[in-house]
Write a structure and sequence with these properties.
The chain has a domain of 122 residues. The protein is 15% helix and 42% strand. With 239 residues, it is mainly beta. The strands form 3 sheets. An 8-stranded mixed sheet has the order 4-5-6-7-8-13-14-15. It has a 5-stranded antiparallel sheet with strand order 9-10-11-12-16.
């Protein structure tokens, strides 16, 4: 399976609680080391490929994270707590094997200590998201050549929509994303939009993040207050 583009998302929570990148470094034979003030803690079997999944320690804006690539590309944001490494967020990019519908979501407040089988944690989320995406009827686009509009969720009265105007958009996972509020719409001017969730209520979106600079993997986070402040206009025929 061709690896999806690397995705990195910096949540305010992760930035506030994460360890400095210098504190978490690569060790030998696939291990990583937490270099705390008292004594270093080594976590074995964390990087290098395992069970067909590519794994590596990466750094993004001074924040350490783990990247895995298999059936999905997932970033695990890390934090230090009481001399141990914990996973704070999982940020995933994948698609349904049945319908081809794109999936870009993040979930935070995971708070699980790092373990050699941490990749399975992300797949517990993406498998569910893929099952949900596989139930979507894509025949309006594939058979009738009509735009496919999908409501992905809502945040405080603002609907999140994805629109596929062509088979090419479906095949390349490049839908247009727009917001709808009181019969008015706002098209998000970025190619990749991620819906943010928390483990406290994993089915309710709490915000959005967009990839603003692909070359440096820079993401921008939008709270419900930000989404309400956008300049909404009359929806067009495909919105």
């Amino acid at each position: 399976m061709k690896a999806l583009p690397l995705i990195i998302f910096l949540t305010q929570t992760a930035l506030a609680l994460s360890a400095n990148a210098k504190e978490i470094t690569k060790g030998k034979n696939g291990s990583i080391i937490l270099n705390n003030k008292t004594h270093p803690t080594t976590y074995k079997d964390i990087t290098k490929s395992k069970d067909g999944i590519y794994r590596d320690l990466i750094e993004t804006n001074g924040t350490p994270a783990l990247f895995t690539s298999g059936d999905a590309d997932i970033i695990y944001m890390l934090k230090e707590k009481n001399g141990k490494i914990f996973i704070d967020c999982a940020i995933a990019e994948t698609r349904s094997n049945q319908t081809g519908i794109s999936i870009r979501k993040s979930i935070c407040d995971i708070n699980k200590e790092l373990h050699p089988d941490y990749a399975e944690l992300g797949y517990s989320f993406t498998d569910q998201w893929k099952d949900e995406a596989s139930t979507i009827d894509i025949t309006p686009l594939t058979i009738h050549s009509k735009p496919l509009d999908i409501t992905k969720g809502s945040i405080e009265g603002i609907e999140i929509h994805e629109n596929y105007n062509s088979l090419s958009q479906l095949e390349n996972s490049t839908p247009d994303t727009y917001l709808k509020k009181n019969n008015e719409c706002y098209k998000i001017p970025y190619k990749k939009t991620f819906i943010n969730y928390s483990t406290t209520n994993p089915t309710q979106p709490i915000g959005l993040s967009v990839l603003v600079t692909p070359e440096t993997y820079e993401f921008k986070k939008y709270t419900p207050k930000n989404l309400k402040s956008f300049h909404y206009q009359k929806c067009n025929e495909t919105s």
